[in-house]
Amino acid sequence: MRVAVAVFPGSNCEHDVVRALGTLGAEPELVWHRETDLEGFNGVVLPGGFAHGDALRTGAIAALSPIMEPVRRMAESGKPVLGICNGFQILCEAGMLPGALIANRDLAFICRFVEVEVVDTGTVLTAAAEPGQMLRIPLNSYEGNWVDPARTGRVVVRYADDPNGSQDRAAAVANEAGNVVGIMPHPERASDPLLGSDDGLVLLEGFVRSLRASVPA
Amino acid sequence: MTTMETPVYAQLGMTEEEYRSVVSILGREPRPAELAMYSVMWSEHCSYKSSRAHLRRFPTEAPWVVVGPGENAGVVDIGDGWLAAIRIESHNHPSFVEPYQGAATGVGGILRDVFTMGARPVALWNQIRFGPLDQPRNRYLFNGVVGGIAGYGNAVGVPTLGGEIEFDDCYSGNPLVNVMCLGILRKEQLVLGTAGEPGNVAVLLGAATGRDGIGGASVLASASFDEEAATKRPSVQVGDPFEEKKLIEACLELYERDLVAGIQDLGAAGLSCATSEPAGRAGLGMDVDLDRVHLRETGMTAPEILMSESQERMLAFVRPDNVDEVLEVAERWEIDASVIGTVRADDRLVVSHDGELVADVPAASLADDAPLYHRPVERPGWLDDLWSRPFQPGEVPVIDTLLDLLRQPGVGSAAWAYEQYDHMLFLGTVVGPGHDGSLLRVAGTGKGLAVSTDGNGRLCLLDPRRGSARLVWEAALNVAVTGARPLATVDNLNLGNPEKPEVMWQLVEVVEGISGACEALGIPVVGGNVSLYNETDGADINPTPVVGVLGLADPMPALPPRLDRAEPGMEIWLIGPEPTDNFAGSHLERLHGPAGGRPTAADPEVGLAVIDEAVRLAHVAPVLHDVSDGGLAVTIAEICIASGVGATIELEGTAELFGEDPHRFVAVVTPGWDPPALGRRIGVMGGDSLRIGDESVSVAALAEAWRGAIPEAMRS
Amino acid sequence: MKVRVTIDRRSEIADPEGHTVMRALHDLGFEDVQEVRMNRVIDLEIAGDDPGEVRRRVVEMCEKLLANPVLEDFEVEILG
Asked: Chain B contacts of A9, Cβ < 8 Å?
């Protein structure tokens, strides 16, 4: 099943996502941000990076990219939409996920493995995980601190400790329907024991399972 | 003194003799734009005029060298159609003026050097040196430099795998910021900095040109050479990682589609260099129209445009029938592009501006006819005095000394810095920061590329030849403990003022030390950089060569050694020669007193045997760790901290525990293994304390001291 | 007293972020935008009632901390 991996100017995790999803049997394809049509795709991933150099606010300019129109349509029709790191920030800026991501509490970029707990298995990302399952996944971000003043967000993965000040220790957040998920740590970077962990696979497998269950647009 | 009395060439940093050479090359007085070009191309930074004669000593050849020194980066063959490109550069002076932007633009520049060769940059390292952190200015510089490295490297999307951090008084007025980049490419994708053939079109890609980094050029702007113009300070260059990221992707697409005949990045000397060097290499000339250059500022003069060091720019040489496609690629990646020139069949570089001829010079003369100095060389008289006063610690309290060492910011954990760097991107980092060497897997092959860099100013102050040779051996051992065989070297020679004969002596000795070690190892020097005039108020820095060794692990070990893989019950072995009572240049010496004594020399025969053993053991041992900064006790402590396991060590004596003699490493192995010839069993892993002789300390206390080293110093 | 400090990058220094935002505005159809500079505004509340003295203090703060003299200019405005 085909999954679009959106590429904005400044994206940098797109090849990593393609590689990780490819090994799990999905058919990932890179799609440039000016594309206005995602027909034939079962779902979409917005990968990590620094779209538009994080100018103005992280994710702000990317949220207005042409590709976000078909992404929004996919989300509304219930198809799996996943934002990783910068992708999470873009989904918040686009209003497709509640809240916003601001600078880490300690005002420093964090690049290290963190422990997270899956607290909600009813989403396209966590479908293959067990409730309460603990995972060791890399966190790599400067603006990873999720704030949700309206408290409408659905927290699906939580940090075991509190690396960045994120509200409710949220590491991943979903929309009400559970088909749009943003996650701050990088599951694709925990996809091989040689790299220190393969705990991210259970999340990516869940996403691939959800793609399989989704009818192409 | 008014500027009326100072000749323009002198304001541009040229000597009268150099000016006369220009007149003799041209057969007339140079025009302002011509003088500007010669002044930047003949600067120490661009021409290596003080060091070039000595750098010829480096061994540069080996069957696997594809591109040696002289191009933008060195390139070596790693088999199966793959090449690796590597380059190191310094950005010391800009980082002192503005640490964040200085470091950021250093990273940007080294990336361009590597993707200019056709390679995708896959990893960055940095080697940074500051004065002690108890001074606020040094904390500001350290914080700014780390911020700039992180800010640029993370946003441009190339992982930064750490490097080296050293603190010493001599860097207080002159921090060192060296950056290194590794790229990978397919053989057929190699591109060189050549203009190719007559008729090729020069396309300027990337950021608009402003007055960045221009020193004296503004003087040339006005005929009156007024006071105000002369005192204008150079504009600080500002890095734009987003522009660079787009530039990388656009250039890689150009290479993949075979649309460029050659390409050159714009770094020091800007367009002056990017036009003259590729034309000179091709034995050709070029017509350049400065009115076509896309500018950021209005009213720029020809000398300013030619000297500008605006960042994130590349000059591509394109066959005329490919120009439209090149412009389309640039537009798709949302970068600006201008056609600014055409390659000529003769050897003239002809530049016009505002419809007028502003320069007409032999293209190759800017690089090839640069002055070459044989400056006086003299061994410093104070060296014998230093050698006569070796540091002799006698017996020291083991645990207190160990904790003191771990608390040193140059010995303790560097996580404060490298956790700000994205070191995991591209899913290639098998052994990352915090280890002796980095190990990257090469996707689609069973190979791994290992890189380590080493520098030690204090060691090289005491004996530049022995010290620099030891750096090569240490870096080579560091790649070997990941399972890689050393393949090539790059070096960055940070030194003081070359007009002092003692500094020139240090340069000559350092080159000799590196050359000798490389010859013994059978590896070539494929690139390097020299940074001179690192001095403050007449005081030179310690001679600080930084050596990088690239190694190839083929095949890569299935589970390469890491510091965190030790388990209770495993045996600890020490491989290498018996230590001597020599502490010259060691961290124990730094703790207790001034530098003194003559460092132990490397022993090539032992060094080679130890490297062989390390490569072999990397396929069987869970942990390999070299003995260097702080000696064996620190080596063991780092294994205990990373693995969360204690150890009992059956060794004693200050030399054994804290000496830093070369060619030694520790292996942690499961019992019953085949012991190596050069090894001896020194202990066992287990418990939650490190026990050495009859003293002991909890692993938690070790970890606290080691982790807190930099954070505590930054809070002071 | 309320004081507003405006810090902007000196005109000859590149402002990559401003350049990126300008491109994005052009993309959205605001093609009349010719330059964007990403400046900063800092509002301070200072004890004291002598505007000259307060201004002198704030200028000192700008020179020592608030602005980076290598890259930036600043302007101090007493709001009352």
From this structure: 242, 245-246, 333-334
